[in-house]
Amino acid sequence: MSRWCTTAEPIVRRNALEIAVEELCITTAGLGNKAGTIGAAALARHSLLETREKDE
Predict the structure, then answer these.
(1) Count of CB atoms within 10 A of residue 33's CB?
(2) What's the rounded Cα separation, in Å, for the pair 37 and 56?
(3) Each residue's pLDDT tens digit, 1-56
(4) Which residues have a Cβ under 8 Å from the Cβ of 30 and sit 6 or more positions away?
(5) Does some domain include residue 51?
(6) Which of its termini does the chain have fewer beta carbons within 10 Å around, N or C?
(7) pTM of the prediction?
(8) Does residue 4 belong to any structural domain of this protein?
C-alpha cells in the first residue's frame, strides 16, 4: 500500500471488488454456468481473505 493512502481506501477498494464479484457471479449464473460461478466466487473470496490477512 502506498504511504499516501488513507486507511479508508483499501476498504473502499475491497467493497468495490466484492460488488464486482457478485455481479460477475449473477451474470455467470444467468448463463447457466453454475460451476463457473462457484469457481469465480471461491477464487475471489480466497483473494479477499489473503488481502485482508496481509493488511492486518
Answers:
(1) 13
(2) 29
(3) 444 444 555 555 667 777 777 776 666 556 655 666 666 777 777 777 777 666 66
(4) none
(5) yes
(6) C
(7) 0.32
(8) no
